[in-house]
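Progress note, project year one: complex with KG4.
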Amino acid sequence: MIRDEPLVLGIETSCDETGVGIVRGNTLLADAIASSVDQHARFGGVVPEVASRAHLEAMGPTIDRALADAGVAFTDIDAFAVTAGPGLPGALMVGVAAAKAYALSLGRPLYGVNHLAAHVCVDQLEHGPLPKPCVALLVSGGHSSLLLVPDVAGDVRSLGSTVDDAAGEAFDKVARVLDLGFPGGPVIDRMARDGDPAAIAFPRGKYKDGTYDFSFSGLKTAVARWVEAKERAGEPVPVADVVASFQEAVVDVLTQKALKVCKDNGVHDLLIGGGVAANSRLRALAAERCEAAGIRLRVPRPKLCTDNGAMVAALGSELVATGAAPSDLSLPADSSLPIESVLMQ
Ligand code: KG4
Ligand code: ZN
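Model obtained:
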């Protein structure tokens, strides 16, 4: 760590995690998280109003915890970064308003950044500077995107995304069908280890060969129908085989399309991020297929893959380092901020 590199505090509130991260350059000093996931569990998905209120309550304490973890004073912060979008409008607004107030009170620059670009940039905290270009596969409860990233601070292009359910959403919905609780990803990941991934030939969550888009809603429906048919016939549902076969269908398509984007664009580095990147089968299959294709794979550790403040601080730090002009303090929260807007002016 170079001591005179700027100290950047990042705030994330786009969904159900209140995240505050602090970095100096590419060195992670604090990554404090308060999650409202337990408050959404009984609804089987994130309830926007509940998430917004939880952010309001958690913001102050999470900032204090991050400062204490980093061992720095609030007045030491040189720049602030905040997720300006995409995400839930009310949830984003809490973070953006807080960040404006903090930046204004200290007279420091504020960078309103893109959540997806932040998911990509976080890997710099773990594996060093990103290769230019690289391809990023971002898979979470809210997004499934394939990005070409010539420069994470200024040039990020969307090549494909989901046309319906996000990959994590499909895990959550299948878990709901099987009464496995919310969020569904971690429990399916665990249970699938005892199942046979080839037991049931579920349709691959493809969307038109030749495009880089994904579709998971047909797969999710196929799983629900299959389970219903078993129940109607009075037969036991082999849950481990169902989730293993479902998971295999998802990760097969994700890795196939990600590798195709790399190949078609002559890119040799693939990064996987977002909550679903914690999936052990996705990590294993991606590693296997990347090795066979001569592609270097980067996957941040699971805590950096799910939504967090460190990723926002990482992108803020990168923008400071590249000399980008900060956002205007009138910046809005934009729930559908396009990926081409890495930094909101
Ligand atoms: O990135 P994230 O924390 O929040 C957003 O949705 O933006 O991702 C949460 C999603 C949930 O849908 C959850 O079920 C999924 O990531 N997830 C997983 C695993 N861990 C979390 N999906 C599959 N396997 C996992 N191990
Ligand atoms: Zn996310």
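The pocket of KG4 (ligand 1) is lined by residues 15, 140-142, 168-169, 171-172, 183-186, 189, 274-276, 278-279, 306-307 (CB under 6 Å).
The mean pLDDT is 95.
No further modelling is planned for this target in the current period.
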